[in-house]
Amino acid sequence: TDFLPSLPYFQSIVCTLRLNDHSSEWDWRGSKPEMLPVHLHTDLDVGSKNIKYVLAGEGAGTIFAINERTGDIHAMKRLDREEKAEYTLTAQVIDRDSNQPMEPPSEFIIKVQDINDNPPQFIEGPYKGSVPEMSQVAIVRVALAGMDREMREEYLIVIQAKDMGGHMGGLSGTTTVTITLTDINDNPPKFTKGSYEFNIPEDLGIGKPGGRVKANDRDIGENAKSTYSIIGGDERDVFEIVTDAQTQEGILRLKKPLDFETKRFYNLTMVATNIRADSVTGGPYMDQATVKVVVEDADEPPIFTKPAYIFDVHENAAINTVIGSVTARDQDAPHSQVRYFIDRHTDLERQFNINVDDGKITLAKPLDRETEMWHNITVTATEVSNQISRAIVAIKVLDINDNAPEFATEYEAFLCENGKPGQVIQTISAVDKDNPSQGHTFHYRLETLNNPNFTIKNNLDNSISVLAKHDSFRRQKQETYLLPIVVTDDGEPPMSSTNTLTIRVCGCSREGIVQSCNVEAFVLPIGLSMGALIAILACIILLLVIVVLFVTLRRHKNEPLIIKDDEDVRENIIRYDDEGGGEEDTEAFDIATLQNPDGINGYLPRKDIKPDLQFMPRQGQHSGPNGVDVDEFINVRLHEADNDPTAPPYDSIQIYGYEGRGSIAGSLSSLETASSDSDQNYDYLREWGPRFRRLGELYSVGESDKET
Q1: Cβ neighbours of residue 324 under 8 Å, at least 6 residues apart?
Q2: CA–CA distance, 547 with 579 (Å, rounded to integer)
Q3: How far apart are CA 700 and CA 708, in angstroms?
Q4: What is the arithmetic mean of pLDDT over 295-306?
Q5: Residue 415 pairs with which residues in a beta bridge?
Q6: Residue 2 has pLDDT above 60, yes or no
Q7: Is pLDDT of 136 > 60?
Q8: What's residue 280's pLDDT?
Q9: How many CB atoms lie within 10 A of CB 493?
Q10: pLDDT, mean of residues 421-434
Q11: What angle do CA 61, 62, 66 make, to 5 degrees?
């Protein structure tokens, strides 16, 4: 048993033994450290040395061991109840020699009892907490009253926990707790200065910042946010102050323009107020400061008396008529000279002029209200320092009665042949480019008062109806009628124009529907539509085109072959029944090549070219008083053609007695060949197949005949 480890003295085991289906339980505390107070014994153990105790189950051999001779059980390791509270084991007695069981196994349970071997622990430490500053004594037990976050924000404390009620022998654990004081609104905003002064130029734009103020607050977050406002001063409506959300500054801005010449100083009173109320008293926290604004003089452009001008002018106004005038003054020097100009980008047609000294606008070109009723131009005013200001000038062109009324559209009326007298042919209305204030009133009349064919009727709505006087209109008699109508307005002075209405006589159905207005259509068979007429016309045109093409082709085919002056003779195909010059005749009609060079000396010129001799034009033949003698005329023309050297065909002497000096390819004739058929072997013809067999036999027969 010396090899078994000892058990610490503060451990004990409750052991329940079940031997031969009987169980017993023991509970030992304060046992010796040498062994566990567990002893197994069997009735078979009477001092025999052949008995052996065997242990099995949870932890057998690793945690627990048994003395095989005495049955004592020992612990081999420290036991920890927090890891495992009990173990189930089995003990048995076997024969030492044969290892055979001598009795059934017995089961027992070892329970590990708890002792105070673990100190208390804080699971989620270290801890953090918060408490509002200036808190009273409460559950958190603030020991120091009136703690101020602005003085100290965090506190670190250590907390200890003990078990066993804090008695001797107990264990303990510690953790840290960080307590942060949260902010409350217990500090007012405070301006960095009690008085501010800003210099702002008078030309500062509306809404532009003129200065910044800042009120500091020792609080943080929402408790430190403040708003700024103006509560006093002269002309407070000239300025406004807004809060910058990022920097918590107050921005002084302009609400109205400044004028150095009118007012040069402004005194304002402003306050900064916390958004949240005082956490102690409940009232608002605020601070107050004064602001002095000094207006600085700036070189300003001239200012017009009006931002925009509107003038009226009649469209018949004469050139150089004064339309109106504009006025501007120099704000810095009221008596300074101001010069006026028209921005020509707004008056591209140069319709108006302006006097550079007094600003009077005059007419430069005639106006036409019907072309453009409004003219918008920009006038600039320039002072000595070249500062420029602009003003819009709108000029309205007033209407006068300078346009005559005319037909609203190009009318073309149709009159039925079978119409009745008094039928309405066309309704006519008129338009006028002028625009009188009381509206238009038009008067109509026929240029020919007693027109035998037509009359008009007033419809009392500035329109008329054209009526037929009779029913004897016929297309064969007159197809178109031109009816002049005079239209007059009631302007001052009255304007009139003569407009012509074209009336065409047409064939209509019984219901009065126009069917045809052409005279040719009257003689066509009834029922022949316009589509059929177009188809017939297309066929006729197609036939004419075919005939023209046929005649043109025949004419080109029958034209005689004529050698033109600027045409090479070799480009024409000329047929001869004579034999040519052979393969060496590469130059057409070269007589020198066709002649034998051994029998010809000298140069033989070509005769198939147009001679240089110019034939004098012949005198025209005058016929006798009784007509033309045809036979005489033909003979004269024949004689002229025979004696005219310039008329084709040209005479040419050609000799074909020489075939040339030879050819690289050799002669194709078999008359003078140096070889004979007997030198040829035609046996291969029989090998070419049945188609050449007969040919081979013929040549073979010829060779055998020659041999015989």
Answers
A1: 309, 311, 360, 361, 393, 395
A2: 43
A3: 13
A4: 85
A5: 505
A6: no
A7: no
A8: 64
A9: 8
A10: 90
A11: 35
Q: Decide if 194 contacts 248 (C-beta within 8 A).
A: no
C-alpha pair distances (Å), 27 with each of 74, 112, 543? 15, 11, 140
Helix (H) or strand (E) holding 329: strand 328-329
Dihedral of the CA atoms 591, 597, 598, 602 (nearest 10)? 80
Q: How large is the average pLDDT for residues 261-290?
A: 81
Contact criterion met (CB below 8 Å) for 355 and 362: yes
Q: Using the 8-state DSSP alphabet, how is residue 432 labeled? A: -
Q: Which amino acid is at 318?
A: A
Kindly provide the b/e burial profile for residues 111-142, where b requires at least 16 CB atoms within 10 angstroms of the residue's own CB.
ebeeeeeeeeeeeeeeeeeebebbeeeeeeeb
Cα separation values, 687 from 627, 700, 702, Å: 84, 13, 18
- Write the CB contacts of 429 (distance below 8 Å, at least 6 apart in sequence): 407, 408, 462, 463
Of 428, 447, 431, 452, the residue nearest 485 (C-alpha)? 447
How is the beta sheet containing 127-132 ordered, strand by strand? 127-132, 172-182, 154-162
Q: What are the residues whose beta carbons fall under 8 Å from the beta carbon of 619, sequence distance 6 or more? A: none
- What is d(CA 684, CA 670) in angstroms, rounded to the nearest whole number? 22
User: Which is more confidently placed, 270 or 136?
Assistant: 270
Tell me what pLDDT residue 663 has: 57
553 has a pLDDT exceeding 60: yes
Alpha carbon distance 602, 101 (integer Å): 156
Q: Give 352's strand partners.
A: 363
DSSP string, 606-632: --SS--SPPPPPPPPPPPBTTB--HHH
pLDDT at 546: 93
Q: Are 646 and 615 in contact (CB under 8 A)?
A: yes
Number of neighbouring beta carbons within 10 Å of residue 444? 21
Angle, alpha carbons 89-95-101 (nearest 5°): 50
Instruction: Identify the band that residue 69 occupies on the pLDDT scale cut at 50, 70 and 90.
Output: confident
Residue with tokens 């120091």: 144
Tokens of 334: 């009221």
pLDDT in tens, 648-661: 665 555 555 555 56
What's the first-to-final CA gap in the chain, in angstroms? 146
pLDDT at 35: 44
- Whether this model's pTM surpasses 0.90: no
What is the 8-class DSSP label of residue 230?
E
Residue 22: pLDDT band with limits 50, 70, 90: very low
CB 231 within 8 A of CB 237: no
Give the pLDDT confidence of 495-547 residue by residue, as tens digits.
999 999 999 999 888 777 888 887 554 444 445 567 788 889 999 999 999 99
Answer whether residue 678 shows pLDDT above 60: no
Burial of 405 (0-12, 13-18, 19+ CB in 10 A): buried
DSSP letters of 151-205? T--EEEEEEEEESGGG-TT--EEEEEEEEEEEP-S-S--EES-SEEEEEEETTPP
The kind and range of the H/E element at 536 are: helix 530-558
Report CA 179 to chain centroid distance, whole Å: 60
Q: Name residue, tokens 């210099």.
A: 199
Q: Are strands 360-363 and 322-325 parallel, antiparallel or unpaired?
A: antiparallel
**Spatial distance between the Cα atoms of 339 and 387, rounded to a whole number of angstroms:** 11
Q: Which of 676, 695, 675 is CA-nearest to residue 684?
A: 695
Token pair recorded at residue 315: 């469209």
